[in-house]
Design brief:
Mean pLDDT: 93
Radius of gyration: 31 Å
Largest sheet: 8 strands, parallel
Number of domains: 5
CATH architecture of the largest domain: Alpha-Beta Barrel
Low-confidence stretches: 1-18
Shape: globular
Distance between the termini: 69 Å
Structural class: alpha/beta
CATH superfamily of the largest domain: Glycosyl hydrolase family 115
Length: 944
């Protein structure tokens, strides 16, 4: 008989008492844990885990007993609402808990029996209070040892969780969890079996989650292959479901044998498929499960036997009827009372949108696009469905356009943005996150489950960074939390611009080879070097802080902080140094060979760090868990070089920032300086031959500042080059457009670099509040708006923590989309305005960057309108379809780009205005090319 899932966490007592401390372990008291003799297996499991938690902190293992009459002194009582043990405790019952979903109460009771002085009712909330992290085992977050343990407990009754079913999908386990379990932790099964799932289920309980979609790749035997798996889920009261590709709790990859059973085709082999589903329903009928209904192909592919959505609809209706009939037959309940989900993933969305009717009691599960952007959510009608809806979200993924299975880098602010949007769209019945191998996704899983349990604080976008800092503080202490959470935030921010796995600019399915990155090495202050510097900074900080972490937490620190930060840094250096090796070789730089070595060294360090993770960390506990080369894709391979420095007659050369030619022997010009942007530009001086030389540097005028007046170059590695920085002393510069030179020379050769600086008085700029262009371009971050004009039903809002600059602007409306053919209505919509000033007349190209979000539901598109200098609004739509090439580039870069070309601008003031049409558009930045800008990748700093 199917048993409805009512209570997961057993922290209940229902008596009136004031907040008070209770002594758990002191010289005077040693706590005892009491559970109901008639209680569930989970009562016993939780009691034992709590006892072990107390032992981890104090060294004392409390006794776990079943007879309240034998208890004396201070006790912890564990029971469920209505249990016999709680009925014997003095005090009124807490009726507010009866019939509710997963609520708990914490109480301290004074003298509840003659022999008990104080009774505390609770389990894992107590563990957290005494310093046990949910990650104590999975990330070796060992607690601080204490001689005595006294905790202060306030009278507390929890609300029900924000989301009913909350859990993880173990997926793509081939390179971590499965080999680790098979070869180290669970050798008796040689697989992910009951012993491993016991640890997974314990983690879920501690994360306040209640649902598992089990591992299902060919490397792992199906969940139901081991009877102990099903029993373990029952013992821990974990709800078992299955992924979008596994209807009726069947693992098609591991359980459907085409040779014996025929094709997985409900048109040609209905009885064979029906029998296959029937046996699993029989087997699972007494368990706590959620059935995935519908049908897809065996290998996460489209359904066999249909040509298109029109063919699929009647077939799926028949499949629904047969599946629900099986449930009613063997569970002996009306199908409407049995938890079921229909996951609208990939091609299933097209079938659903074509008009597929889904039974009203079934939960619709909306997936993201595999890269963190939810494809769509409820319409007004769908919000009213009895079965409600949920979300299937990815923090790890195998597939097109590129996997990200190594490091966990999905930005916390993006997860918060998408999942709060889902919650507000009434998708609250089920949330599942694709957790990959669980490790190294610890923080993303913590964040996801915390949001699912209590969404309230996350409704404010500022809470993203606060949550990370709080999590870090709980593990490494409040004193270290700002520094550690700060470097982790930068880690996520850098990966939001480009994930480590995407740094090869390659793709998969089909697999392409790596190539040069799109970062500019010669303009915008050297984007590539800026990224290397940023990673070097957090890598150095991570290692420095790691040396100060208490010894009992260093294994945890390495797993949660140092390895992911270091790995991401090294992967970026591997590719960016590889870029420099090739590009510098073409410029005859002797240093090209040094960059080859730096690239190779970065690869070797990734191998070394991963070897430490697998073989030395936590005394080898995680052997086989970490792979830095899932699927052996090209991005993970050792770098290859096919170029050596080109030959030149010159012994040394100079190249200014922005220079594109390889001819280094004539005079050059730096980009123009101006007093409003106060730029600094670089000059690269380098050897092309293995000599030693001293060069003198001077400026023609005292208002030109050079970072060095003499340099010595040698043929030793990176000492063969030097980067000079040029700035202007604006207090000394003439009040006009002035010219000068930087001269670099030795005994026989001189190179002069032209400098132009605009210090002309422009009265209109005296009180100007907008952005001011350089001579060649202008960049504006979304939150740097001049004015915002919202309406009663539509608004642009600042989203903190999200976007290239850390803030973005999002459109919100509950109203129907604006009629784009009604210019008056469009101009009356919520508007966002940016004032800017150009220093010269130019034909400008505008590039508008938004995040690649999808329409909120089928009632909307992804449109906004843009007007420049009050011109007629120009409409843009960033909606993408399927796995188009545009969508692929969007998710790889976390940006969707739209352009306005050849817009003639006079020198002077201008204005660009954005009008709201559809909700969910997130504006990130604007780039205006005034004719001289070069290619770039990601965000270009506003400070030129």
């Amino acid at each position: 008989m199917y048993k409805p899932f009512l209570i997961l966490l057993f922290f209940f007592s229902y008596c009136r008492i004031n907040a008070a401390p209770i002594e758990l372990v002191t010289p005077h008291h040693k706590v005892t844990i009491v559970i109901d003799k008639a209680g569930s297996r989970l009562d016993s499991i939780c009691a034992q885990l709590l006892a072990e938690d107390i032992q981890r902190v104090t060294g004392y293992l409390p006794a776990v007993i079943y007879d309240l009459n034998l208890a004396k002194g201070n006790v912890i009582i564990i029971g469920t609402a209505g249990s016999e043990i709680l009925s014997r405790i003095k005090g009124p019952s807490d009726r507010s808990l009866k019939g509710t979903w997963e609520r708990y109460a914490l109480r301290i009771l004074n003298n509840p029996t003659k022999t008990i002085q104080k009774a505390l009712v609770g389990v894992f909330s107590i563990s957290e209070k005494i310093g046990i992290s949910p990650w104590y085992w999975w990330a070796d977050v060992h607690p601080a040892v204490k001689k005595q343990l006294i905790i202060d407990v306030k009278y507390h009754t929890s609300p029900s969780p924000s989301v009913k079913y909350r859990g993880i999908f173990i997926n793509d386990e081939d390179w971590g969890l499965q080999p680790w379990a098979a070869k180290t932790f669970e050798r008796e099964t040689g697989d992910i079996g009951p012993k491993t799932y016991a640890k997974v289920f314990e983690l879920l309980l501690r994360l306040k989650a209640n649902l598992i979609w089990p591992a299902m790749h060919p490397s792992t035997k199906p969940f139901y292959s081991y009877p102990g798996n099903k029993k373990m889920a029952a013992d821990y009261d974990i709800v078992v479901g299955s992924s979008h590709a596994e209807p009726m709790l069947r693992n098609n990859v591991g359980e459907w044998d085409e040779k014996k059973m025929g094709h997985f085709n409900y048109v040609t082999n209905r009885q064979g498929v029906y029998n296959y589903w029937e046996s699993r329903v029989k087997e699972s009928s007494a368990n706590n499960v959620i059935y995935t209904i519908g049908m897809r192909g065996v290998h996460d592919s489209g359904m066999e036997g249909v040509k298109d959505s029109k063919d699929a609809i009647p077939l799926l209706q028949n499949i629904f009827n047969d599946q629900r009939g099986l449930m009613q037959k063997y569970i002996q309940k009306d199908a409407a009372e049995i938890p079921q989900v229909f996951t609208i993933y990939k091609e299933v969305l097209d079938i659903y949108e074509a008009g597929l009717p889904v039974p009203d009691d079934v939960t619709l599960v909306w997936p993201d696009d595999n890269y963190g952007y939810i494809q769509r959510l409820n319409s007004k009608a769908e919000k009213e469905r009895h079965g409600g809806s949920g979300v299937y979200y990815h923090a790890s993924y195998w597939g097109r356009p590129h996997d990200y299975l190594w490091l966990s880098t999905t930005h916390p602010a993006l997860i918060r943005e998408e999942m709060t949007k889902a919650y507000q769209a009434e998708a609250r019945n089920l949330w599942v996150v694709n957790a990959g191998d669980i490790k190294p996704g610890e923080y993303n899983l913590q964040l996801f489950t915390d949001m699912a349990y209590d969404i309230t604080p996350f409704l404010k976008s500022e809470y993203s960074a606060t949550h990370l800092q709080n999590w870090v503080a709980g593990i490494f202490g409040a004193g270290k939390a700002p520094a550690i959470s700060g470097l982790l935030w930068k880690y996520y921010q850098l990966a939001f611009e480009r994930k480590p796995e995407f740094m090869g600019w390659s793709q998969t399915e089909p697999t392409t080879q790596t190539k040069l990155t799109a970062y500019n090495h010669f303009y915008y202050g050297d984007q590539a070097q800026q990224r290397v510097d940023a990673y070097n900074d957090i890598e150095t900080r991570a290692k420095t802080i790691g040396k100060t972490v208490h010894s009992y937490r260093r294994d945890a620190y390495y797993q949660l902080v140092q390895y992911p930060v270091t790995g991401a840094s090294l992967m970026n250096k591997k590719f960016l140094y590889h870029d420099k090796a090739g590009l510098y070789a073409a410029q005859s730089r002797l240093s090209a060979r040094s960059y080859q070595k730096l690239s190779e060294d970065a690869y070797k360090e990734i191998v070394k760090e991963t070897d430490y993770y697998n073989n030395a960390l936590a005394a080898g506990k995680w052997k086989y868990m970490m792979s830095f080369h899932p699927r052996d894709l090209p991005v993970y391979q050792r770098p290859k070089f096919d170029s050596i420095p080109s030959k030149t007659q010159a012994q040394w050369l100079v190249l200014p920032e922005g220079y594109k030619s390889n001819d280094g022997r004539r005079s050059f010009t730096l980009p123009k300086f101006d007093a409003w942007n106060r730029q600094r530009y670089f000059l690269d001086v380098y050897l092309s031959k293995a000599i030693t030389t001293t060069l003198n540097i001077s400026a023609s005028d005292d208002w030109i500042k050079v970072s060095a007046d003499q340099i010595t170059l040698t043929g030793e590695g990176l000492k063969s080059q030097h980067r000079l920085w040029i700035e202007i002393d604006w207090t000394k510069a003439p009040r006009k457009v002035a010219g000068g030179q930087v001269i670099i020379k030795d005994a026989s050769t001189q190179v002069a670099i032209t400098v132009s600086a605009n210090n002309s008085p422009i009265p209109l700029l005296h009180n100007f509040k907008g952005a001011i262009s350089s001579d060649s371009y202008l960049t504006i971050n979304a939150a740097g708006y001049s004015a915002v004009s919202n309406t009663a039903s539509a608004e642009w809002k600042v989203i903190s923590q999200l976007g290239s600059s850390g803030k973005s602007m999002e459109t919100f409306t509950d109203s129907p989309a604006i009629n784009i053919n009604d210019t008056l209505a469009l101009r009356s919509s919520a508007a966002l305005t940016y004032d800017f000033y150009t220093l010269k007349e130019a034909d400008a190209n505008f590039r508008i960057y938004t995040l690649p979000t999808h329409p909120l539901n089928k009632e909307y598109e992804m449109r906004y309108a843009v007007s420049i200098d009050n011109s007629p609004p120009q409409l843009f739509d960033i909606k993408t379809f399927g796995r188009s090439e545009e969508w692929k580039q969007n998710v790889l870069s976390n940006s969707a780009v739209r352009s306005i070309s050849n817009k003639h601008l006079t020198a002077g003031k201008h204005r660009i205005t954005f009008y709201l049409i559809d909700p969910g558009v997130i504006l990130d930045r604007i780039f205006i090319d005034l004719g001289n800008a070069q290619d770039y990748y990601g965000g270009v700093s506003e400070h030129l």
